[in-house]
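The methods section describes the discrete structure representation at length, but only in general terms. An entry of this sort, consisting of the sequence and the corresponding backbone structure tokens, reads as follows:
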Amino acid sequence: MVHAHMTTWFLALILFFVALGLHKSGKEKGFKVLKMILRVLYILILATGLGLIFSLTTISFLYIVKVAVGLWVIAMIEMILGRTAKGAPTKGLWIQFIIALLLVLYLGFSLPLGTDLF
């Protein structure tokens, strides 16, 4: 289940940056298609993440923090894509996205249920 979760969020990050590239190059139809695919990936990320959480015998506070920060990352991706499509400024959202992404990666790789990177 850990590998499925890691694959879905890694694929979502790649598609996020591809969608931004498509928008910059003026390909709005491809941008909209990738936004829809990303929304399906959000569901898969949430499903695999909840599967991992419910497989634990005891849930510590750090796992709850990781879930909250993971939702924050998904929200920032969606808000950056939405504001980019409208032409609104996204600097503050990018700062939040980077902070949340680094935090969720640190928590994900440092907690016992996952891959030992740190």
